[in-house]
Amino acid sequence: MNIEIKNLDNLTEDEKETFNRLVAKANKKSKVFKPEHRQEYFYIDSYADILNTAFYKDNTDKTRFELGNIFETKEQAEFAIDKQKVYTELKRYALEHNEEEIDWNDIDK
């Protein structure tokens, strides 16, 4: 959405500062990638294959976004697979090798 501003002279200095702050905030690119309607994105299927499709804001796309399974690039999806593999390996290792429960109230542990 583009807004045409013709005159800021009728604003107070405080209003101008607020306006400029809001414009800067509105123009700041989000760190979270959420595709626009029909924009291509990548996702990981249940076989760990990386596929691409267009974003149509349907339930499938919404669910993928909620689960963090929407990536701007194929490389980001590949990294997510590697990251999940490492996480799973560490979790399984901890489950196999940690015999005693951790008492989170004990500061020495």
List keywords for this structure.
single chain, mainly alpha, about 10% strand, about 110 residues, two-stranded antiparallel sheet, 2 strands
Describe this structure in words.
With 109 residues, the chain is mostly helical. It has 3 helices and 2 strands; from the N terminus they run αββαα. The protein has helices spanning 13-27, 59-67, 74-97, and strands at residues 40-44, 50-54. A two-stranded antiparallel sheet has the order 1-2.
Helix content: 40-55%
Distance between the termini: 54 Å
What general outline do the C-alpha atoms trace? flat
Let me know the average pLDDT: 89
Strand residue content: 5-15%
Low-confidence parts lasting 5 or more residues at pLDDT below 50? none
Content-based structural category = mainly alpha
How big is the Rg? 23 Å
Biggest sheet, strands in spatial order?
Answer: 1-2
Please write the string of helix (H) and strand (E) elements.
HEEHH
The helix count comes to 3
The beta-strand count equals 2
Largest sheet: 2 strands, antiparallel
Summarize the helices and strands and which ones pair or pack.
Layout lengths: L12 H15 L12 E5 L5 E5 L4 H9 L6 H24 L12
Antiparallel strand pairs: 1-2
